[in-house]
Amino acid sequence: MITDEEFLKVSSYMKQNYGIDLSQKKVIVNGRLENHIKSGGWKNLHDYMEAMKKDQSGELEKMLVNLLTTNHTYFMREFEHFEYFKTVVLPWLKTKESKTKDLRIWCGAASTGEEPYMIAMVLSDFFGLERGSWDTKLLATDISTRALMQAMAGVYTAEQLTNLPDQWKKHFFTPVAGGSQYAVKDELKREILFRQFNLMEPFPFKNKMHTVFLRNVMIYFDAKTKRDLVQKVYDCLIPGGYLFIGTTETLDRNTSPFQIIKPSIFRKKEG
């Protein structure tokens, strides 16, 4: 069992470096770290944290982040967002960027890949035969390297694809392992750039984004961290750009610079 002092140390570290608030989650933290510490040969969490400081490879820190971040997601989650994206946002962008034919879309909590693959499928569906003349490659980032490895592998069980339309399943996936699993086709994989990224870091974008999906990640942040992040997202969007957050999440109406379109869909003021 980790001590109160050790818990304070690890929760402060995660908050300071990654914005994740674990202050009320001692039982979860203990459950996720206790076996890992024992099996790795460390006496306690204090020893692990000390070893992590000296680890120049960064592997121990990566492991800590992987263990303490949650990656729950699934295909078709909050599908109303994708409907709105396809019927409202993309027609607007198609007109707006008709000369450049360049779309900049960022999925900031890519997890194990279901969400960015959903966005890529919607883009493919919308542009159809015109897709080849547009740059629709999207950026998908996550703090967890373990989740990203799964995302890049792009292999899911038949059960995970249950809610997907049959047309998408046939067009974008190949059955493997005797049909018990499905692999994302390379054609779709090529439409996504997966990268590890910490949302607390300065955003490195040279050009402003058209749309940002930041769904079901801010629930792990306290009010100030969330407020600062929302401002950074606002600043990285073009005028008129859209932000999608989780349906159970909210933005503070008093401090958020965004216009509310729907409860979980926001827009930067045009012009």
What features would you describe in this structure?
With 271 residues, the chain is of the alpha/beta class. The chain has 10 helices and 10 strands. A 7-stranded mixed β-sheet has the order 6-2-1-7-8-10-9. The protein has a 3-stranded antiparallel β-sheet with strand order 3-5-4. A hairpin with a 2-residue loop joins strand 9 (259-262) and strand 10. Helix 5 packs across helix 6 (114-127).
Q: Could you give the order of the helices and strands?
A: HHHHHEHEHEHEEHEEHEEE
Derived from helix and strand composition plus strand pairing, the structural class reads alpha/beta
Under the CATH scheme, which class of the largest domain? Alpha Beta
At the fold tier of CATH, the topology name of the largest domain is Rossmann fold
Distinct helical segment count: 10
Beta content: 15-25%
What is the CATH-assigned architecture of the largest domain?
3-Layer(aba) Sandwich
How are the strands of the biggest sheet laid out side by side? Answer: 6-2-1-7-8-10-9
Which outline best applies?
Answer: globular
Biggest beta-sheet profile: 7 strands, mixed
The total beta strand count reads 10
Whole-number total of structural domains: 2
The CATH homologous superfamily of the largest domain: Vaccinia Virus protein VP39
Q: Quick check: average pLDDT?
A: 91
Distance between the termini: 55 Å
